[in-house]
Amino acid sequence: MDPCPFVRLTVGNLALKIPVASKPARSVVHPSSSPCFCKIKLKNFSVQSAVVPFIPPENHLDSQIQTIAAIFHLSKCDLDKLVGKSIFAGKGKVFLKISIYTGRRGTTCGVNSGRLLGKVSVPLNLAGTESKSSVFHNGWITVGKDAKGSSAQFHLNVKAEPDPRFVFQFDGEPECSPQVFQIQGNIRQPVFTCKFSFRNAGDRNQHSRSLPSESTSSRSWLSSFGSERERPGKERKGWSITVHDLSGSPVAMASMVTPFVASPGSDRVSRSNPGSWLILRPGDGTWKPWGRLEAWRERGSSDGLGYRFELVPDTNGGMSAAGIVLAESTLSLNKGGKFEIDLGANSNGRATPVNSLSPVCSPRSSGDFGYGLWPYCMYRGFVMSASVEGEGRCSKPTVEVSLQHVTCTEDAAAYVALAAAIDLSMDACRLFCQRLRKELCQQLDVLG
Protein backbone atom coordinates (compact mmCIF):
# COMPACT_ATOMS: atom_id res chain seq x y z
CA MET A 1 0.00 0.00 0.00
CA ASP A 2 1.35 3.42 -0.96
CA PRO A 3 0.27 6.55 0.94
CA CYS A 4 -1.02 9.81 -0.50
CA PRO A 5 0.95 13.05 0.03
CA PHE A 6 -0.45 15.36 2.71
CA VAL A 7 1.02 18.40 4.45
CA ARG A 8 0.31 19.46 8.02
CA LEU A 9 0.50 23.24 8.53
CA THR A 10 0.69 24.17 12.23
CA VAL A 11 0.44 27.51 13.98
CA GLY A 12 1.54 27.60 17.59
CA ASN A 13 3.59 29.05 20.43
CA LEU A 14 1.39 32.15 20.46
CA ALA A 15 2.13 34.95 22.88
CA LEU A 16 1.55 38.68 23.18
CA LYS A 17 3.58 41.41 24.86
CA ILE A 18 2.06 44.86 25.22
CA PRO A 19 4.00 47.84 26.62
CA VAL A 20 2.56 49.13 29.90
CA ALA A 21 1.51 52.75 29.60
CA SER A 22 2.94 55.18 32.18
CA LYS A 23 -0.42 56.92 32.43
CA PRO A 24 -3.84 55.27 32.27
CA ALA A 25 -5.69 55.95 29.04
CA ARG A 26 -8.86 54.67 27.48
CA SER A 27 -7.04 53.61 24.33
CA VAL A 28 -4.48 51.53 26.19
CA VAL A 29 -5.09 47.80 26.38
CA HIS A 30 -4.63 46.23 29.79
CA PRO A 31 -4.21 42.55 28.89
CA SER A 32 -3.97 41.40 32.49
CA SER A 33 -7.69 42.10 32.76
CA SER A 34 -8.59 41.89 29.04
CA PRO A 35 -8.21 38.45 27.43
CA CYS A 36 -6.73 38.28 23.95
CA PHE A 37 -7.51 35.97 21.06
CA CYS A 38 -6.81 35.71 17.35
CA LYS A 39 -8.47 34.50 14.17
CA ILE A 40 -6.31 32.50 11.77
CA LYS A 41 -7.21 32.37 8.10
CA LEU A 42 -5.79 30.37 5.19
CA LYS A 43 -7.33 30.72 1.75
CA ASN A 44 -10.05 28.12 0.99
CA PHE A 45 -10.12 26.91 4.62
CA SER A 46 -12.41 27.72 7.53
CA VAL A 47 -11.24 30.41 9.93
CA GLN A 48 -9.82 29.05 13.19
CA SER A 49 -9.57 30.98 16.44
CA ALA A 50 -7.33 30.59 19.48
CA VAL A 51 -6.60 32.26 22.80
CA VAL A 52 -3.39 34.31 22.85
CA PRO A 53 -1.59 34.18 26.22
CA PHE A 54 -0.31 37.51 27.53
CA ILE A 55 3.29 37.60 28.72
CA PRO A 56 4.51 40.50 30.88
CA PRO A 57 7.28 42.47 29.13
CA GLU A 58 9.86 41.41 31.72
CA ASN A 59 9.19 37.67 31.24
CA HIS A 60 10.82 35.35 28.72
CA LEU A 61 8.73 33.19 26.42
CA ASP A 62 10.75 30.08 27.21
CA SER A 63 9.20 29.98 30.69
CA GLN A 64 5.75 29.48 29.20
CA ILE A 65 4.11 26.18 28.21
CA GLN A 66 1.72 26.54 25.30
CA THR A 67 -0.31 24.42 22.93
CA ILE A 68 -0.69 24.34 19.18
CA ALA A 69 -3.21 27.01 18.21
CA ALA A 70 -4.35 25.88 14.76
CA ILE A 71 -3.78 23.06 12.30
CA PHE A 72 -4.52 22.96 8.58
CA HIS A 73 -4.42 19.59 6.78
CA LEU A 74 -3.50 20.03 3.12
CA SER A 75 -4.10 17.29 0.58
CA LYS A 76 -2.36 17.20 -2.80
CA CYS A 77 -5.44 18.87 -4.31
CA ASP A 78 -5.33 21.62 -1.66
CA LEU A 79 -1.65 22.22 -2.35
CA ASP A 80 -2.23 22.44 -6.09
CA LYS A 81 -4.94 25.05 -5.52
CA LEU A 82 -2.80 27.10 -3.12
CA VAL A 83 0.52 26.84 -4.96
CA GLY A 84 -1.12 27.22 -8.34
CA LYS A 85 -0.53 25.20 -11.48
CA SER A 86 -1.47 27.84 -14.06
CA ILE A 87 0.66 30.38 -15.93
CA PHE A 88 -0.65 33.03 -13.53
CA ALA A 89 0.61 31.21 -10.43
CA GLY A 90 3.62 33.49 -10.05
CA LYS A 91 1.45 36.60 -9.76
CA GLY A 92 -0.07 35.61 -6.45
CA LYS A 93 1.41 34.54 -3.13
CA VAL A 94 -0.04 32.42 -0.36
CA PHE A 95 -0.39 34.15 3.01
CA LEU A 96 -1.48 32.99 6.41
CA LYS A 97 -3.45 35.90 7.86
CA ILE A 98 -3.89 36.42 11.58
CA SER A 99 -6.10 39.06 13.21
CA ILE A 100 -5.40 39.74 16.90
CA TYR A 101 -8.15 40.95 19.20
CA THR A 102 -8.50 42.03 22.79
CA GLY A 103 -11.62 41.13 24.73
CA ARG A 104 -13.57 37.92 24.93
CA ARG A 105 -14.44 35.80 21.91
CA GLY A 106 -18.02 35.76 20.68
CA THR A 107 -20.62 38.12 19.32
CA THR A 108 -23.18 40.43 20.86
CA CYS A 109 -26.20 41.35 18.73
CA GLY A 110 -24.31 40.13 15.68
CA VAL A 111 -21.26 42.32 16.38
CA ASN A 112 -17.88 40.86 17.34
CA SER A 113 -17.19 41.59 21.00
CA GLY A 114 -13.39 41.75 20.60
CA ARG A 115 -11.47 44.90 19.62
CA LEU A 116 -8.98 44.53 16.77
CA LEU A 117 -5.42 45.11 17.97
CA GLY A 118 -3.66 44.40 14.70
CA LYS A 119 -3.12 42.03 11.80
CA VAL A 120 -0.22 39.83 10.79
CA SER A 121 0.48 38.16 7.43
CA VAL A 122 2.98 35.33 7.08
CA PRO A 123 4.04 34.42 3.51
CA LEU A 124 4.03 30.69 2.79
CA ASN A 125 6.12 28.88 0.19
CA LEU A 126 4.38 25.51 0.14
CA ALA A 127 6.16 24.09 -2.90
CA GLY A 128 8.00 20.92 -1.93
CA THR A 129 6.52 20.65 1.55
CA GLU A 130 5.12 17.19 0.69
CA SER A 131 8.68 15.86 1.13
CA LYS A 132 10.49 18.41 3.31
CA SER A 133 9.60 20.33 6.47
CA SER A 134 9.69 24.12 6.36
CA VAL A 135 9.53 26.76 9.09
CA PHE A 136 7.96 29.94 7.70
CA HIS A 137 8.20 32.02 10.85
CA ASN A 138 9.41 31.55 14.40
CA GLY A 139 9.68 34.64 16.57
CA TRP A 140 8.19 38.01 17.34
CA ILE A 141 6.29 40.33 14.99
CA THR A 142 5.41 43.95 15.66
CA VAL A 143 1.67 44.56 15.82
CA GLY A 144 0.40 48.15 15.48
CA LYS A 145 1.91 51.36 16.86
CA ASP A 146 0.65 54.07 19.14
CA ALA A 147 1.36 57.78 18.98
CA LYS A 148 4.65 57.44 20.88
CA GLY A 149 6.03 54.73 18.65
CA SER A 150 5.78 51.84 21.08
CA SER A 151 4.14 48.68 19.80
CA ALA A 152 2.80 45.33 20.83
CA GLN A 153 4.80 42.20 20.07
CA PHE A 154 3.16 39.00 18.82
CA HIS A 155 5.00 35.68 18.91
CA LEU A 156 4.14 32.70 16.73
CA ASN A 157 5.60 29.69 15.01
CA VAL A 158 4.34 28.62 11.59
CA LYS A 159 5.65 25.45 9.99
CA ALA A 160 4.69 22.80 7.46
CA GLU A 161 5.74 19.17 7.54
CA PRO A 162 4.99 16.11 5.40
CA ASP A 163 2.15 14.00 6.78
CA PRO A 164 1.56 11.17 4.27
CA ARG A 165 -1.65 9.21 4.77
CA PHE A 166 -3.42 6.13 3.56
CA VAL A 167 -6.85 6.95 2.17
CA PHE A 168 -9.65 4.38 2.15
CA GLN A 169 -13.24 4.67 0.95
CA PHE A 170 -16.24 2.44 1.55
CA ASP A 171 -17.97 1.49 -1.67
CA GLY A 172 -21.33 1.59 0.08
CA GLU A 173 -22.93 2.09 3.46
CA PRO A 174 -21.33 -0.05 6.22
CA GLU A 175 -24.58 -1.90 6.94
CA CYS A 176 -24.66 -3.06 3.30
CA SER A 177 -21.42 -5.08 3.69
CA PRO A 178 -19.43 -3.07 1.13
CA GLN A 179 -15.94 -3.36 -0.27
CA VAL A 180 -13.32 -0.86 0.93
CA PHE A 181 -10.99 0.70 -1.64
CA GLN A 182 -7.63 2.34 -1.17
CA ILE A 183 -7.52 5.67 -2.98
CA GLN A 184 -4.36 7.10 -4.50
CA GLY A 185 -4.99 9.91 -6.93
CA ASN A 186 -7.27 8.50 -9.62
CA ILE A 187 -6.47 4.88 -8.69
CA ARG A 188 -9.01 2.85 -6.68
CA GLN A 189 -7.80 -0.53 -5.48
CA PRO A 190 -9.90 -2.94 -3.36
CA VAL A 191 -8.15 -3.84 -0.09
CA PHE A 192 -10.89 -4.95 2.35
CA THR A 193 -14.41 -6.33 2.44
CA CYS A 194 -16.89 -5.70 5.25
CA LYS A 195 -19.53 -8.04 6.62
CA PHE A 196 -22.38 -6.57 8.66
CA SER A 197 -24.29 -8.97 10.89
CA PHE A 198 -26.36 -9.27 14.06
CA ARG A 199 -25.18 -10.90 17.24
CA ASN A 200 -28.02 -12.40 19.22
CA ALA A 201 -28.14 -11.62 22.91
CA GLY A 202 -28.00 -15.32 23.76
CA ASP A 203 -25.00 -15.96 21.52
CA ARG A 204 -22.18 -13.67 22.61
CA ASN A 205 -19.68 -15.89 20.85
CA GLN A 206 -21.30 -15.82 17.43
CA HIS A 207 -19.26 -12.87 16.20
CA SER A 208 -15.94 -14.66 16.67
CA ARG A 209 -16.64 -17.83 14.75
CA SER A 210 -14.79 -16.51 11.68
CA LEU A 211 -11.51 -16.90 13.54
CA PRO A 212 -9.83 -20.32 13.47
CA SER A 213 -10.06 -20.77 17.23
CA GLU A 214 -11.63 -19.19 20.28
CA SER A 215 -10.75 -19.14 23.95
CA THR A 216 -12.85 -18.51 27.03
CA SER A 217 -10.89 -15.35 27.81
CA SER A 218 -11.87 -13.75 24.48
CA ARG A 219 -15.55 -14.23 25.22
CA SER A 220 -15.08 -12.52 28.58
CA TRP A 221 -14.08 -9.28 26.89
CA LEU A 222 -17.60 -8.68 25.63
CA SER A 223 -19.22 -9.30 28.98
CA SER A 224 -16.62 -7.13 30.72
CA PHE A 225 -17.04 -4.15 28.40
CA GLY A 226 -20.72 -4.56 27.61
CA SER A 227 -23.92 -5.46 29.41
CA GLU A 228 -25.20 -9.03 29.58
CA ARG A 229 -28.59 -8.11 30.97
CA GLU A 230 -31.62 -7.71 28.79
CA ARG A 231 -32.88 -4.14 28.90
CA PRO A 232 -36.60 -3.52 28.64
CA GLY A 233 -37.95 -0.81 26.38
CA LYS A 234 -36.62 0.61 23.15
CA GLU A 235 -33.14 -0.54 22.17
CA ARG A 236 -30.85 -1.30 19.26
CA LYS A 237 -28.37 -4.05 19.92
CA GLY A 238 -26.15 -6.78 18.57
CA TRP A 239 -24.77 -4.97 15.51
CA SER A 240 -21.38 -6.16 14.33
CA ILE A 241 -19.17 -5.45 11.35
CA THR A 242 -16.13 -7.57 10.45
CA VAL A 243 -13.35 -6.35 8.15
CA HIS A 244 -11.67 -9.01 5.98
CA ASP A 245 -8.58 -8.75 3.80
CA LEU A 246 -8.69 -9.88 0.19
CA SER A 247 -7.80 -13.44 1.18
CA GLY A 248 -10.95 -13.58 3.31
CA SER A 249 -9.16 -13.54 6.68
CA PRO A 250 -10.77 -11.37 9.37
CA VAL A 251 -8.43 -8.51 10.31
CA ALA A 252 -10.60 -6.23 12.47
CA MET A 253 -14.07 -6.00 13.96
CA ALA A 254 -16.45 -3.46 15.49
CA SER A 255 -18.97 -5.09 17.83
CA MET A 256 -21.77 -3.32 19.69
CA VAL A 257 -21.23 -4.37 23.31
CA THR A 258 -23.66 -2.00 25.04
CA PRO A 259 -27.10 -1.58 23.41
CA PHE A 260 -28.25 1.87 22.31
CA VAL A 261 -31.24 2.36 24.62
CA ALA A 262 -33.82 5.14 24.79
CA SER A 263 -33.79 7.00 28.09
CA PRO A 264 -36.94 6.54 30.20
CA GLY A 265 -39.78 8.66 28.88
CA SER A 266 -37.92 9.69 25.73
CA ASP A 267 -36.99 8.53 22.24
CA ARG A 268 -33.28 9.31 22.46
CA VAL A 269 -30.02 7.78 23.60
CA SER A 270 -28.72 10.05 26.35
CA ARG A 271 -25.20 11.00 27.34
CA SER A 272 -25.76 9.49 30.78
CA ASN A 273 -26.47 6.07 29.23
CA PRO A 274 -24.56 5.81 25.92
CA GLY A 275 -24.29 2.83 23.67
CA SER A 276 -20.82 1.48 23.00
CA TRP A 277 -18.71 -0.48 20.53
CA LEU A 278 -15.61 -2.54 21.07
CA ILE A 279 -13.02 -2.38 18.28
CA LEU A 280 -11.17 -5.70 18.14
CA ARG A 281 -8.10 -7.07 16.39
CA PRO A 282 -7.08 -10.71 15.91
CA GLY A 283 -4.27 -12.11 18.01
CA ASP A 284 -3.26 -15.60 19.18
CA GLY A 285 -6.27 -17.17 17.47
CA THR A 286 -8.81 -14.94 19.18
CA TRP A 287 -10.10 -11.37 19.20
CA LYS A 288 -8.32 -8.81 21.37
CA PRO A 289 -9.81 -5.42 22.28
CA TRP A 290 -8.04 -2.35 20.89
CA GLY A 291 -10.45 0.51 21.44
CA ARG A 292 -13.86 1.43 22.81
CA LEU A 293 -16.28 3.91 21.22
CA GLU A 294 -19.23 5.40 23.11
CA ALA A 295 -21.94 7.42 21.36
CA TRP A 296 -25.11 9.26 22.37
CA ARG A 297 -27.49 11.96 21.16
CA GLU A 298 -26.76 15.46 22.46
CA ARG A 299 -29.54 17.89 23.27
CA GLY A 300 -29.36 21.49 22.12
CA SER A 301 -30.54 23.99 19.55
CA SER A 302 -29.55 21.39 16.95
CA ASP A 303 -29.10 17.78 17.96
CA GLY A 304 -25.62 16.35 17.73
CA LEU A 305 -23.97 12.95 17.87
CA GLY A 306 -21.70 12.94 20.92
CA TYR A 307 -18.86 10.45 20.99
CA ARG A 308 -15.88 9.39 23.05
CA PHE A 309 -13.13 7.05 21.85
CA GLU A 310 -10.52 5.50 24.11
CA LEU A 311 -7.72 3.00 23.71
CA VAL A 312 -8.01 -0.21 25.70
CA PRO A 313 -4.66 -1.01 27.33
CA ASP A 314 -3.29 -4.48 26.72
CA THR A 315 -3.20 -5.91 30.23
CA ASN A 316 -2.73 -9.58 29.26
CA GLY A 317 -6.21 -10.52 30.38
CA GLY A 318 -6.44 -8.11 33.31
CA MET A 319 -9.22 -5.53 33.50
CA SER A 320 -7.92 -2.98 35.99
CA ALA A 321 -6.20 -0.49 33.65
CA ALA A 322 -8.26 2.53 32.62
CA GLY A 323 -8.76 3.43 28.98
CA ILE A 324 -6.87 6.33 27.42
CA VAL A 325 -9.15 8.88 25.76
CA LEU A 326 -8.01 9.95 22.29
CA ALA A 327 -11.10 11.78 21.03
CA GLU A 328 -14.24 13.29 22.53
CA SER A 329 -16.44 15.68 20.56
CA THR A 330 -19.76 16.16 18.74
CA LEU A 331 -20.88 15.77 15.12
CA SER A 332 -23.89 17.46 13.55
CA LEU A 333 -26.72 14.95 13.13
CA ASN A 334 -28.07 17.06 10.29
CA LYS A 335 -24.92 17.86 8.29
CA GLY A 336 -22.53 15.19 9.52
CA GLY A 337 -18.85 16.07 9.65
CA LYS A 338 -15.52 14.41 10.42
CA PHE A 339 -14.66 12.07 13.22
CA GLU A 340 -11.02 12.88 13.90
CA ILE A 341 -8.25 11.76 16.21
CA ASP A 342 -5.65 14.51 16.21
CA LEU A 343 -3.49 14.80 19.30
CA GLY A 344 -2.09 18.13 18.21
CA ALA A 345 -5.46 19.87 17.97
CA ASN A 346 -6.77 22.33 20.52
CA SER A 347 -10.39 22.92 21.54
CA ASN A 348 -11.15 24.26 18.07
CA GLY A 349 -10.46 20.88 16.53
CA ARG A 350 -13.10 18.34 15.71
CA ALA A 351 -11.49 16.01 18.18
CA THR A 352 -10.54 17.13 21.66
CA PRO A 353 -8.17 14.96 23.68
CA VAL A 354 -8.50 15.02 27.46
CA ASN A 355 -6.27 17.83 28.74
CA SER A 356 -4.32 15.63 31.12
CA LEU A 357 -3.41 13.29 28.27
CA SER A 358 -2.87 15.77 25.48
CA PRO A 359 0.75 16.26 24.38
CA VAL A 360 2.14 19.60 25.53
CA CYS A 361 4.26 21.97 23.52
CA SER A 362 6.90 24.41 24.64
CA PRO A 363 8.52 27.16 22.56
CA ARG A 364 12.10 26.34 21.70
CA SER A 365 14.77 28.08 19.69
CA SER A 366 14.25 25.64 16.83
CA GLY A 367 10.56 26.40 16.68
CA ASP A 368 9.78 22.75 17.28
CA PHE A 369 6.62 21.63 19.07
CA GLY A 370 7.97 19.12 21.60
CA TYR A 371 5.70 16.29 22.74
CA GLY A 372 5.77 15.28 26.38
CA LEU A 373 6.03 11.70 27.50
CA TRP A 374 2.61 10.25 28.19
CA PRO A 375 0.92 6.85 28.03
CA TYR A 376 0.75 5.46 24.52
CA CYS A 377 3.10 8.19 23.29
CA MET A 378 3.18 6.42 19.92
CA TYR A 379 -0.17 8.09 19.26
CA ARG A 380 0.67 11.71 18.51
CA GLY A 381 -0.11 14.29 15.89
CA PHE A 382 -2.74 13.39 13.32
CA VAL A 383 -3.87 9.78 13.73
CA MET A 384 -6.98 9.32 11.59
CA SER A 385 -10.19 10.89 10.32
CA ALA A 386 -13.42 9.54 8.89
CA SER A 387 -16.17 11.37 7.04
CA VAL A 388 -19.67 10.95 8.48
CA GLU A 389 -22.87 11.91 6.67
CA GLY A 390 -25.91 13.31 8.45
CA GLU A 391 -29.05 11.36 9.30
CA GLY A 392 -30.90 9.92 6.34
CA ARG A 393 -28.08 10.58 3.88
CA CYS A 394 -26.23 7.96 1.86
CA SER A 395 -22.92 7.42 3.61
CA LYS A 396 -19.77 6.02 2.01
CA PRO A 397 -17.13 6.94 4.60
CA THR A 398 -13.71 8.13 3.52
CA VAL A 399 -11.00 7.23 6.01
CA GLU A 400 -7.57 8.86 6.27
CA VAL A 401 -4.88 7.23 8.43
CA SER A 402 -1.44 8.67 9.09
CA LEU A 403 1.41 6.64 7.64
CA GLN A 404 3.20 6.60 11.00
CA HIS A 405 0.30 4.70 12.59
CA VAL A 406 0.12 1.88 10.03
CA THR A 407 2.72 -0.87 10.25
CA CYS A 408 0.58 -3.78 9.03
CA THR A 409 -2.77 -4.59 7.41
CA GLU A 410 -4.43 -5.07 10.81
CA ASP A 411 -3.53 -1.50 11.80
CA ALA A 412 -5.34 -0.03 8.80
CA ALA A 413 -8.27 -2.42 9.24
CA ALA A 414 -8.77 -1.34 12.87
CA TYR A 415 -9.26 2.28 11.78
CA VAL A 416 -11.63 1.16 9.01
CA ALA A 417 -13.67 -0.76 11.61
CA LEU A 418 -13.69 2.31 13.87
CA ALA A 419 -14.94 4.44 10.96
CA ALA A 420 -17.75 1.94 10.37
CA ALA A 421 -18.69 2.07 14.05
CA ILE A 422 -18.95 5.86 14.18
CA ASP A 423 -20.99 5.83 10.97
CA LEU A 424 -23.36 3.16 12.31
CA SER A 425 -23.68 5.14 15.56
CA MET A 426 -25.37 7.87 13.55
CA ASP A 427 -28.16 5.35 12.86
CA ALA A 428 -28.09 3.79 16.33
CA CYS A 429 -28.70 7.22 17.87
CA ARG A 430 -31.64 8.14 15.67
CA LEU A 431 -34.82 8.93 17.55
CA PHE A 432 -36.67 5.72 18.32
CA CYS A 433 -39.84 7.12 16.78
CA GLN A 434 -38.01 6.91 13.42
CA ARG A 435 -37.67 3.55 11.72
CA LEU A 436 -34.30 2.37 10.46
CA ARG A 437 -33.55 0.98 7.00
CA LYS A 438 -34.21 -2.74 6.59
CA GLU A 439 -30.51 -3.74 6.69
CA LEU A 440 -30.32 -2.49 10.28
CA CYS A 441 -33.54 -4.14 11.45
CA GLN A 442 -33.88 -7.55 13.03
CA GLN A 443 -37.10 -9.28 14.01
CA LEU A 444 -36.09 -9.16 17.66
CA ASP A 445 -35.28 -5.45 17.58
CA VAL A 446 -37.65 -3.08 19.37
CA LEU A 447 -37.92 -0.06 17.13
CA GLY A 448 -40.92 1.73 18.55
TrEMBL record:
Annotated Low complexity bias: 208-226
Annotated segments matching region Disordered: 203-239
Residue ranges with Basic and acidic residues bias: 227-238
The protein's name: DUF1005 family protein
Organism: Quillaja saponaria (Soap bark tree)
